[in-house]
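B., you asked whether I could sanity-check this one before it goes into the benchmark set. Here's the sequence:
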Amino acid sequence: MAYDPSIRASDADRDRAASLLREHHAAGRLTPEEFSERLDIALSAKTVGEIDGLLRDLPSVDLYRLPDAALTRQPRQAQPRKPHPGAWRAAWGSWFTCSLLLFVIWALTGHGYVWPLWVAAPWAAIMLGQWVSGVRPGGSRRQVRGPGGPDHGQLPGGDQDLPGRPR
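And here's what the prediction gave me:
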């Protein structure tokens, strides 16, 4: 279909023209008076030819490329998470309190099979394993920062980037 300047303009055409005029005004190509005048005409334009006439003396702007590539955001530096100073003390305190409660219940109900060990021993083994491996209470690992940090192939959590995955 050939271009016909007499085709009626849609609301989307007028909005696109207004966006382009705003970008040209922000870039300094239009004075405030020129921008205001052209914006009024663009918003009341009846045909695409009127809109094109407003933009004819301006360079084309690709609205999909805005903002400018020079304004790219820098990756945020990961802040090391500081553990609560008493996190392990609180975790072991919870284990001790629950284990003590289970043993008291066991003692009050009769001295048969020592069933509280089925709860206390695995729980203690899991916590001891986490403490030795460096996992904090709550499940997160201690952050081990390599010499490069997140800007040199490491994600903020300390894990290496996966090959083939864009950063």
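One thing to flag: Confidence is low (pLDDT under 50) at residues 66-73, 148-163. Otherwise nothing jumped out at me.
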